[in-house]
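In the design runs reported in the main text, the only information available to the sequence generator was the tokenized backbone. The following block is the verbatim input for one such run; it is reproduced so that readers can re-run the procedure and compare outputs position by position.
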């Protein structure tokens, strides 16, 4: 279980302090899928980075299965069981795809296992195993590789920041199937930041973040209708691909 208590993150812009995440509290139950949506610039990605330890909270507490990880850095949070897929994945010149997948899994993976992982995110495996993670890969290819690295190892909590961004319809459908398979097992918590209606409809609960605060949170059956009928809510959502 993930417990977030009164989490706050501030930045200083030209001498003026501004809160990006404002006193946010929520939980994610074991096996639950929580989808976070809301207007651009509302603080969703910043919240995800604070949870992963990429950014350090100014106040609040984060507990993972009862363990206080508030002071853990990104490496220790990964070891504690958090996986993270960036909205804009980093590139690693000189590192091949199969090496990256093995590092993500924490063990040397045989070729057939790497191929299965790549196929699962819509990449033709044989063409990518020995390619470098550099500028020759498109943004969509990078996004799919990033998601494959998260799926390479079982985690307590997986955070995906807009997994649908920059990928084609076929690859998007394959990713949705992956999320459905993980969710069906109920052995990992899933937190997805998304504007995509098809992903939002998969959620157990939906959390709407706007201006750094939680505007709505609740079961999909309760929150989704308000997103579909509320003009502001519809502006947060993209129609099904």
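Verbatim output:
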């Amino acid at each position: 279980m993930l417990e977030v208590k009164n989490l706050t993150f501030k930045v200083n812009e030209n001498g003026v302090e501004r809160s990006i995440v404002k006193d946010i509290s929520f939980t994610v139950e074991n096996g639950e899928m929580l989808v976070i949506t809301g207007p651009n610039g509302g603080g969703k990605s910043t919240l995800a980075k604070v949870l992963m330890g990429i950014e350090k909270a100014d106040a609040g507490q984060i507990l993972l299965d009862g363990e206080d990880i508030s002071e853990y850095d990104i490496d220790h949070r990964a070891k504690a069981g958090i996986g993270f897929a960036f909205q804009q994945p980093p590139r690693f010149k000189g590192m091949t795809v199969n090496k990256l997948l093995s590092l993500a899994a924490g063990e040397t993976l045989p070729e057939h296992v790497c191929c299965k992982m790549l196929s699962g995110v819509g990449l033709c495996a044989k063409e990518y195993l020995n390619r470098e993670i550099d500028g020759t890969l498109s943004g969509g290819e990078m996004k799919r590789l990033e998601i494959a690295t998260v799926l390479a190892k079982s985690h307590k909590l997986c955070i995906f920041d807009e997994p649908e961004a920059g990928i084609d319809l076929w690859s998007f459908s394959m990713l949705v199937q992956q999320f459905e398979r993980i969710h069906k097992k109920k052995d990992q918590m899933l937190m997805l930041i998304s504007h995509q209606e098809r992903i939002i409809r998969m959620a157990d609960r939906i959390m709407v973040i706007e201006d750094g605060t939680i505007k709505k949170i609740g079961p999909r059956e309760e929150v989704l209708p308000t997103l579909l009928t509320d003009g502001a809510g519809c502006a947060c959502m993209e129609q099904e691909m």
